[in-house]
Amino acid sequence: MIKLFRQTRYLLIVFGFLGSFHANAQLNKKESLDLIGRVIPKKAQFFVVESLESTAPKDLFEIESKNQKIILRGNNGVAVASALYYYLTEYCHCQITWNGTNLDLPAKLPQLPTKITKKTPYQYRYYLNYCTFNYSMSWWNWERWQKEIDWMAMHGINMPLAITGEEYTWREVYNEMGFSDNDLKDFFSGPAYFSWFWMGNLDGWGGPLPVSWMKSHKDLQVKILQRERALGMKPVLPAFTGHVPAAFKKKYPNAKLKATNWTNGFGDTYILDSEDPLFAELGKRFINKQTKLFGSDHLYSADTFNENEPPTDEPAFLSKLSARIYEGMRQADPDAVWVMQGWLFYSDRKFWKAPQIEALLNAVPNDKMLLLDLATEIEPVWKRTDAFYGKPWIWNMLNNFGGNVNLFGRMDGVASGPALALNDPNSKNLQGIGLTMEAIEQNPVIYELMMQHTWQTTPINLDEWLVKYAKNRYKTDDKSLVEAWQVLRQTAYNGKDIRDGAESIVTGRPTFDSTTIWTRTKLNYKPKDLLSAWDLFVEASKKGIDSDGFQYDLVDITRQVLANHALILQKKWKNSFKAKDAVQFKKDAQGFLDLIADMDELLATRKDFMLGPWISSARSWGNTPAEKALYEQNARDLITLWGDANSPLHEYANRQWSGLLNDFYKPRWEQFFVELNQALASNREPDLKTFDENIRTWEWKWVTSQKNFPTTTKGNSHQVALKMYQKYRKEL
């Protein structure tokens, strides 16, 4: 159920704020030139940036060639960056993704025969999910954030969620209200759990949070916001949602507090009733302090119903409740816009029926609320809410949950969905598109595809688009790779049968079952149907195709084939065990373990699939051995148990990463096979209850231990992929 709420508390922008949204987003030529210098430093001198006036509130850009220079014009930095990326992809056949970049520009830059003009039909292009800040961004430094902000600008993003440093703001607020750091030590979570702390799901887990972290990330947030605003973005900042520390009960004994529990193995958290006068006071204090520290674009994220149902479904009550929440926001900032995610209307549809939804939304003026249809590619809530009853709203793609590693996406649906909605009169006040994935740095094709919509009003022709995508990514016109992508389109990226990507059984807690609660192995295609794509990539590798993106895709497709094959190998050792054939069981079990080791060896060739950088970057934030140990424990815990030894969320955020496979998943299976071998030797049933108890203890010991993992790649992606192909292809 975590997948149902982790996309919570988002915010965007006001419909009536349209004019000022772009009136303030003027072009900063220096920032645009600096971005060009960061992206293509050796060719930056061949680009000229000019301002382009826009009478409408929607971004536009122009590209023109003059005197052997490329002129990029835009009404703000995002438009200019988008113009740059359009030129790089359409004329230089380049590409920039999280997982593979091709910036092999021609010696002489191509000149445009005529001027190109593009205008976006979407006023808002939203980015990020609360969960992204932990599943992907927990340990990011300024260098990594700078790259992401450049990526955002080039992909047309103009409304990023910006919640780094929120804990510093709250510490300041509570200290001024008389709360000591000791009062708050059980309130702030560890760095890997801020998303769920911010959403009011848990207190203190992974802490206590060092003050040094709060200060360093306040400084980081200042840099993030300065750069985003300088490029013309309007960051979305958090607002008060009612979540208060347990110490609030002692400081304000008459306060109207409600204890609530997330039911995922964590203690109660406390929500201040919106009717309590302290609610408005706290909200005002927080926004005032936040504005002093970070400024404001009047866009506030607030979601008070994250996995918490209101006490009654009476429409009149819900209307008053919604009005109070908005009023508290308005008192702090008269220009405040409440952006609400619409996921709760899907995740708890038994409660949120038409009268309840309409009452909640209609209590706030249309120009003061914006709805995020958070996973429109999965469940278009707008279609059953009369397009959110007239509120402006945004079509978002979620795609990834928990940062799980898999080939997955709804390619055809994403290619057509936004444009179909845009041109549907029933969509009413559709104002934007966005990306709200729980984690990034996987399936880059889906995100490139989604943001292609920024500058067009019609569905994307995938047959044509995939040709350009392959050429830009692989630096070749090799038709076999386009053919491979058509196979991927019909298999891993067909968007059928399952809601999100399947995991491999190797990442699940050892079991005889073919699936576990957070390791779901059902595929949306037959495993054998993926093999022809693997064949084509291996053959392309032999031809010498070697771009960064090709290496990543070769490894990722090979990984997926092996991950799928694990289920077949599991069935083999399960059958030999049931047949009580000890000799064959040992052979089959070893084959399963060898597969895990082979996957680890393959993934070690790409940093995208390594545990070491995740752990190393976590430890890098520590100033003392104790802080480094705390951050490493946070990093280890989130991607394995998620909580304590008895966490019901174990494996929710599982990763197929080199280091994690050999050091965590493989040893678990080895211990499981020891128990099964002993059971066969003594002619008894395996004691799975005792094994489960013991393995939980072992897992927690792993989470709380410390170890250095490689941070540099080992081996050649082509050679290791070919090695796996030669070993497994005939068997498959």
UniProtKB/TrEMBL annotation:
Pfam families, per the entry: NAGLU, NAGLU_C, NAGLU_N
Gene3D superfamilies according to UniProt: Chitobiase/beta-hexosaminidase domain 2-like, Glycosidases, N-acetyl-b-d-glucoasminidase
Taxonomic superkingdom: Bacteria
Domain Alpha-N-acetylglucosaminidase N-terminal: 34-110
Signal sequence range: 1-25
Keywords on record: Hydrolase, Signal
InterPro entries, per database record: GH, Hex-like_dom2, NAGLU, NAGLU_C, NAGLU_N, NAGLU_tim-barrel
Residue stretches making up the Alpha-N-acetylglucosaminidase tim-barrel domain: 125-456
Ranges where the Alpha-N-acetylglucosaminidase C-terminal domain occurs: 465-727
Stored PANTHER family: ALPHA-N-ACETYLGLUCOSAMINIDASE (PTHR12872:SF1)
The protein's name: Alpha-N-acetylglucosaminidase
Organism: Arcicella rigui
